[in-house]
C-alpha cells in the first residue's frame, strides 16, 4: 500500500510554468527503469524507453511543454474516449450502455470479462468494450475510423494527425486476442459488422500524437467539450461528465481505484506510454514516457502527474 503525502502548503495553479514542469520531469526522469516498453505489439517495442515529455494546457488555452515535446507516439487506448464520444452522440448513451456495462474492474485491459458470463463487456475502456464501441459508430469500411481521426484533429487543432501504418499492421497481424473478443461479441449478437470494424479499432490505436495533443484532449473533456482555444462547436456538459466518469472508474484499468485515491482525477492511459488527464473546469495534462508498469500505465508518467497533483492540490477529493 503506497501512502501518499500531500504538500502542506498548496501552490497556486496560476504559478504553473515550464520551470515547475521541468523540475517535476527531472525528478521523475529515471522512473522509466522501473517499467518496460510494451512489446506485445512488435512495432511498439522499438520505442526509446528514455523519451519523456510533460505538457499542460491551462484555462486561457496557454500551453506549457517540457521534455521531448516533438516526440510522437501512438495514442493507443486513449482513443477509446474519443470513440465513446462519437458512439454516444450517434446512438445515445442508453443504447450504448445497453450493450456494455458501466463497471470498474480488477482485471487487465485485455481481459475477456464478462463476455462469457453476462455476455457483455464490463465497460468501454477495456479492449472488449472499446472494440464494441468503435463497431457502433456508423459507416462502412474505414469511415468510422475517419470520424475518430477527424474529431481528434479538431480537439487538438492539429490537422497533421494520422495513424502510423507500421504500428497498425503490427497490431492487426498480432491482435488475435482482440480478434477473439470481436468474434465472441459477434456470436453474442452485440456486433453485426465485419472485420473492417476491428481494423478501425487497430487504426484508432495507431494514431500518432504528442504529449501536447494529449493535454488538449484532457482539456476538452475537463471543460464541457470546449476546445482549448475556446471553440464551442461540441459544447456538451453531459458528454464531458460521462467521459470523465468512465476515465475515473476505468481509465487506468485495474489500477483505477488506487489512482483515484492517489491522483484523484479522470485520466486515460495507453500502452504507447501516454496518459491524458482532465482537471475538471481547470486544465488538461498530457504525459509521455513509454516504459509501462505492471498495469500497462506509464511508470514515469504516473509519477509526474502525482507530483503535480500533490504540489497544486489538484485532486478532486
Ligand atoms: O488493443 C490493444 O492491444 C492496444 N492496441 C491498445 C491497448 C491499450 O493501449 C491498453 N492500455 N493500456
Automatic annotation (TrEMBL):
Looking up SUPFAM superfamilies in the UniProt record yields: beta-lactamase/transpeptidase-like
Residues recorded as binding substrate, renumbered to this chain, are: 77, 127, 171, 178, 201, 253, 271
A single GO molecular function term of this UniProt record: glutaminase activity
Query: Which terms are listed as keywords in the entry?
Result: Acetylation, Hydrolase, Signal
Q: Name one Pfam family in it.
A: Glutaminase
Q: Which InterPro entries match?
A: Beta-lactam/transpept-like (IPR012338), Glutaminase (IPR015868)
Q: Top EC class per UniProt?
A: hydrolase
Write out the catalysed reaction. L-glutamine + H2O = L-glutamate + NH4(+)
Q: What is its EC number?
A: 3.5.1.2
Q: Does the keyword Hydrolase apply?
A: yes
Q: Which NCBIfam families match?
A: Gln_ase (TIGR03814)
The record, for PANTHER family, names: GLUTAMINASE
Question: What is known about its subunit structure?
Answer: Homotetramer.
Could you say which protein family the record assigns here?
Answer: Belongs to the glutaminase family.
The protein's name in its UniProt record: Glutaminase
Task: Give the source species.
Answer: Chryseobacterium herbae
Amino acid at each position: 500500500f503506497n501512502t501518499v503525502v500531500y504538500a502542506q502548503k498548496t501552490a497556486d495553479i496560476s504559478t504553473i510554468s515550464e520551470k515547475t514542469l521541468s523540475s517535476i520531469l527531472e525528478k521523475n526522469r529515471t522512473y522509466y527503469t522501473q517499467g518496460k516498453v510494451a512489446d506485445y505489439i512488435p512495432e511498439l517495442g522499438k520505442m526509446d524507453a528514455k523519451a519523456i515529455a510533460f505538457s499542460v494546457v491551462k484555462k486561457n488555452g496557454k500551453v506549457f511543454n517540457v521534455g521531448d515535446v516533438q516526440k510522437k507516439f501512438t495514442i493507443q487506448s486513449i482513443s477509446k474516449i474519443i470513440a465513446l464520444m462519437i458512439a454516444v452522440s450517434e446512438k445515445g448513451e442508453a443504447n450504448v450502455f445497453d450493450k456494455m456495462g458501466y463497471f470498474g474492474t480488477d482485471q487487465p485491459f485485455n481481459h475477456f470479462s464478462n463476455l462469457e458470463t453476462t455476455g457483455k463487456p464490463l465497460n468501454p475502456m477495456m479492449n472488449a468494450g472499446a472494440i464494441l464501441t468503435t463497431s457502433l459508430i456508423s459507416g462502412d469500411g474505414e469511415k468510422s475510423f475517419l470520424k475518430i481521426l477527424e474529431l481528434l484533429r479538431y480537439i487538438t487543432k492539429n490537422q497533421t494527425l494520422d495513424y502510423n501504418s507500421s504500428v497498425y499492421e503490427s497490431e492487426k497481424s498480432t491482435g488475435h486476442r482482440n480478434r477473439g473478443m470481436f468474434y465472441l461479441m459477434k456470436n453474442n449478437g452485440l456486433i453485426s459488422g465485419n472485420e473492417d470494424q476491428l481494423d478501425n479499432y487497430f487504426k484508432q490505436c495507431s494514431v500518432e500524437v504528442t504529449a501536447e495533443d494529449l493535454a488538449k484532449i484532457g482539456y476538452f473533456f475537463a471543460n464541457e467539450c470546449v476546445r482549448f482555444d475556446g471553440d464551442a462547436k461540441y459544447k456538451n456538459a453531459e458528454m464531458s461528465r460521462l467521459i470523465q466518469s468512465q476515465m475515473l472508474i476505468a481509465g487506468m484499468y485495474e489500477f483505477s481505484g488506487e489512482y483515484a485515491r492517489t491522483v484523484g482525477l479522470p485520466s486515460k492511459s495507453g500502452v504507447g506510454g501516454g496518459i491524458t488527464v482532465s482537471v475538471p473546469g481547470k486544465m488538461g495534462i498530457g504525459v509521455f514516457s513509454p516504459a509501462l508498469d505492471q498495469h500497462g500505465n506509464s511508470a514515469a508518467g504516473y509519477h509526474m502527474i502525482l507530483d503535480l497533483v500533490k504540489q497544486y492540490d489538484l485532486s478532486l477529493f
